[in-house]
Structures are given as C-alpha cells and as structure tokens.
Amino acid sequence: MPRTGTVLGAPAERLEGRQKVTGAARYAAEHPLSGRAHAWPVPAAVARGRVTAVDTSAARAEPGVLAVLTPGDAPRLAEPEDATLAVLQDPNVPHRGWCVALVVAETLETARAAARLVRVDYDAEPADLTLTMDHPESYEPEEANAGQPGRVEHGDPEGAFAAAGTGVDVVYRVPPLHNHPMEPHTTTARWDDDRLTVYTSTQGGTTARSVLAQLFELPEDRVTVVSEHVGGGFGSKGTPRPDLVLAAMAALRTARPVTLAYPRRYLPTVVGHRAPTLHRLRLAADPDGRLTALLHEVTTHTSRVREFVEQAAVPARVMYATPNLLTVHRAVALDVPSPSWMRAPGESPGMYALESAMDELAGALDMDPVQLRIRNEPEHEPGTGRPFSSRHLVQCLREGARRFGWDERDPRPRARREGPWLLGTGVAAATYPASAGPATATARALPDGTFTVRTNATDIGTGARTVLAQVAADALGTALERVRVEIGHSDLPPAPLAGGSMGTASWGWAVHDACADLAARLAAHTGSLPAEGIEARADTTGRADAEVPYARHAFGAHFAEVAVDTVTGEARVRRLLGVFAAGHILNARTARSQFTGAMIMGLGMALTEHSTLDSAFGDFPESDLASYHVPANADVPAVEAHWIDEDDTHLNPMGSKGIGEIGIVGTAAAIGNAVHHATGVRCRELPLTPDRILPGLLSAG
C-alpha cells in the first residue's frame, strides 16, 4: 500500500498544464502534416431504407474537391466486430444520420460546401422509433453491458411486495442523453505505402490500433495510433467511432493526409448516446424500515446495428439488504442510432430511479431518508452474496449529513420559503464498481538521475499523466520532477482504455510494478549506470484480470439544496455536497476536479439535459449546444467534494478505486429529492424543467 507522507496523494499540479494553456499540446486535428486535406460526411436523411443512387457530379465539380466516397466505390473493409464501423460498405441505411457519402477537399470549407451538393436518393422503409414498456418486440437479453446478467432474482419478490404493509410502486423515465466532449470526434490519417498512422481523439489507442489493423487487414506493427492529448470523451470515445475509419479510408483513396472532425450537430446520431430508460420500482418495507422486497425493472432501446443494453437495474443488486430481490432488463431493437457508453452507464440512470424511489419510501414510512439507507446496509453484496472488499457508505452518509447540516432539516415539504422561492434539501447514495484490467509498462533509470515511464495510457483530461508520475515517484522513492511519463502512442507498452473508472487502477498497477522492480535493480547495482540506463518492464496480465472473491465498489453520498420559483417553476441548485469512499486518493487536486466535474454533469442531467427522438424522422432535434443545454457557469452553485480514505487490500498496489464516474451517480436523485422536499411535487421524469414542475405547484396551491 502507498506510504504516507510521500508524493502519492499530494495535490500535484498537472504536468502538461503549461502545454495546454500555451497551445503547445496537439489534439487530433492540430498536427501540421504537409498536404493535409479535409473530409466532411453526408448523413442519411431517412430513418430506414436503402440508398438507390448518389449523384456526386456537382460536388466533384467544385474547385478543390479531391474525392467523394460512396457506398458503391469506397475502399472495402474486413467485416468489423462492431457493425457501427461498417461505413460506406453497402447501401443499407439502418438509421438517420448514418454516413452515406464522404467528401474530401483541400479545405474544410470546401468539403463542407461540396457535401451539401451531394444528392442521395433513397428507397425509404417504415421505421419503428418509439420506446414503450409494453412494446410487442421487447425481449430480455441474456446479458446487459459489461457482462452483467440480464436478470437476477432471489426469494419471492412478487409475493413479498404483494404482502407488504408499506410500499411504493412507481415509474421513472430518463430521456436520451448525449456526451458532447469539448473536442469532437476527430481523426487525422496518413498512409506511407502500407503503413497507417492516425492522430485520433480516443480513450483507447491500443484498441484503436487493433481495430484498424483488422479492418484494413494489416499487421498491427504497421498501424500507429497517436492520442497524446484528448479533449474529453465521457465514454463516447471508449471504442472506435466512424471518424477513425472514414479518415483512414479517405487518406487511402486520395494518397493525402486527411482530417475528419465530426461536426457537433452530427455527433448525437453517430457516436452513441445514453439510451432512454423506463424504470418500474417496487419497494416494500416492514414498520422499522427494513426492505422486504426490491423490484427494479428497466426497459430501454437498442439499435438494429448492434445490441447495447443500458444496465440500469444493476445498482439495485449492490445497494440494499433485502431477502426478496428482482432486477431485470428488457430491450427493444428500434430503427435508431446505436446507443453506447456515457459516464456511469447503467449506474447513472439506475441510481436516479432507485434513490428517488427510496426517498418516496422514506416518505411513506415517515422516516428520515438518511436513516432509511443506513438501516438497509447489507453485510454482503445482495446480488451475488460476495463480501465487499470495503464498503463505507454509512460513513459517507453520516459525514455528509454532518457537513451539510442535515440534522437542522425540517422534514416537512414546503416548510421553508424565501419570498416566491420554496427551499428544500435532498440526499441520495451512489455506487460504482472498482475494477482493473491488464496493462504493461516500462520504467528506465538514466545516468542523469531521471526516470522515464512509458505506457499507452490515455489522458482524457483527468490528469492521468500526473497521477502516473506520482505512482512512479512513490515506488522509486524519488522526487516527482525527476519522473517523465510518456503516454498516448501505440508504440508504447500496451494498456487498456480510459473508461469504466479503471484507467488509473490498471495503468498505475503496471507502472508501480515496473518501478518497484527497477528500484530493486538499482539497489543491487554498483557503479555508474550505462549510457542507455537500466530498464524494468511489468505486465499485470493474470493478476489485474484475475477472478476475486470480493465485490469491489466505490460508494458515496450526495446532498443537495434547491430553490424552486413558485411563479415560473424554475429550480435552482444552491448547494451540492458529496462525500466519497474510493480507496486511497492518489492526487487530491485532480480527484476533487473529477468529483466536482461529475457532480456538475449530474446537475445537468437533473435540470437541463435531455434529448428527444423524433418519432417522425428518427433524429435528435437537440443536436447542438444551443438546444441540448449543458449547465453554464450561472447554473453551477457551490460544489463541495470530500472523501473518506479507505485501506482496501483487495484492489491494486496503490489501494485506489476509480473516481471518474462515482460523482455523477447520485447527483440527479439528490436534486430531484430536494425539489420534492421544497415543493411537495414529485416529478418522475428528467429533466426537472419548469414545464414539469409548475403544473404540480399550481395543483398543490
């Protein structure tokens, strides 16, 4: 475990900070390659059908246009494992926005203008676009995402709920949501004979390299993927997206370097989204507040291109003790863009519904919501029966309540008022799995007393470089400024993607082991170092991915204070406070940034963010940041993030858990519960916009 009083855990500043603020950091579209061209996609204008003709004559006639790729003449690819990457391979249109042509030109402006001149004819077919709980083609998948069983059932949940004296039976709805990273999905591709180099905005360069090699039938050592700086992803860049493949195809066709930066308005239909989820929660409890039954049923959509089932019922298998448990997922394959990963997939919408229902149960029992959660603390993970490697949710709830001043709360709704504003407070718990995957790393000691650490990790804005340098410095017993970290290049030792809150846990394990081995070699070495230095290598395969008998999770507690305008129905968050138990915190500065950033994203989920799948056209009208409303500075209140340091020996050498996603998980429910406490109005569909709150206020008088 990490030593106390060392660089590990200190609030170190980001090592690449100066590069970013001075513009020296190069992102995917910013590499100055001689002769570079630009590409612009043409999206399908029908929700389902076939392309029958593509007229490219007007586009090709534009000065500066180099090529127009169509399904009839684009380079052929090997069949991908992920069918969303089979772009321009056949005339089928599985959903609106699917790429049906690609224009390549000397400038971005020319490519964009020429793309508008491409004329595409379709044989349109009827499309099924509407998700309902009782959809006739609904089915139960064997697995939801991340290999989770589609259904888990213990005891007699239906019978126990029917026999209960106190219970709630409620339906919650979460709309489609979109990732919208600051840097859109972008790739610059270049071919040198049969060697392919791409500069791309990805959360996983090792994966991108493997996919490109498979699609273009190349040995992996002839593919280089550079992703040294990435402007956010939130899950949407976790696996390759069409920009990677289209840019490589365009560069192959034109024999020029080509950059494709997907326009933001096209992202919702191309790079994945959080699928809408319909939740039915049934909770029953005895008079003391102990759960006797918990039933969480989730219905969501997937696409006909590939199956992706938001695992939103999974958190109910982790959170609370009950002898009777049912969690089940149902999916409906529709003619919609393929959903995909978005920050805390499953946990984020699932915990919104579960923690809102727990608040409703607390009201039915006339019981404090914090105490209800504490009373139902399990000894083992309810879904599997495994012991927890560590679980400090109760401590998070109690510490959060103390810091927030929860004991001063009047439990009655509508009890606090400031002029036209009703004030309320709410609480919700949070959980996210703590995982790691196999990674490799090298560490080299140089004669000048410095060290170089190399691994193909990806920093998507989280401060990964800095934290890995701290891990290395701690294991080597040296100063942070003596460590140089190289990441974001596929020629480096392979490492897993930045996703699932497991990046640092995975990369850091390999870095720690390589540095610990190097430190031992240096201790045994006599004399000066050779000019090339001494290197150690580590590979955590077989250990990081080994089966463990423990349920490993991070936990947290969220508290929110809101004000609701009785005239307009507007809800404003005044305070957010989170307390988290996520193993040892490796960098206090970057950790606080991750916690608070995720909490703000949860605020957006609660109050402003939503998308609508147009039932007539199969498109998302909220396709840019003018219509898809992320929180602005004026929306963000005082946000506090605190943590309880855990000593968990069942994780990794650093004792760390992932922190990138736990912050979003309980925020929306805490805000929703606070809105109910302020107004007495329970809104069960996100976001909590004035049009949903005001009718309840008016009917309540």
Entry summary:
The chain is of the alpha+beta class and about 700 residues long. About 25% of the residues lie in helices and about 25% in strands.
Overview features:
701 residues, alpha+beta, seven-stranded mixed β-sheet, five-stranded mixed β-sheet, 16 helices, 25% helix, disordered N terminus
Structure explained in plain terms:
Helix 13 crosses helix 15. The N terminus is likely disordered. The chain is α+β, with helices and mostly antiparallel strands and 701 residues long. The chain contains 16 helices and 24 strands. The protein has a 7-stranded mixed sheet with strand order 3-5-1-12-9-10-11. The chain is globular and about 75 Å long.
Distance between the termini: 58 Å
Can you count the helices? 16
Mean pLDDT level: 97
Helix/sheet category: alpha+beta
Net shape = globular
Uncertain spans, ≥5 residues at pLDDT below 50? Answer: 1-5
How would you characterize the largest beta sheet?
A: 7 strands, mixed
Strand order of the largest sheet: 3-5-1-12-9-10-11
Classify the helix fraction into a percent range.
Answer: 10-25%
Number of beta-strand segments? 24
Strand content: 15-25%
Radius of gyration: 26 Å
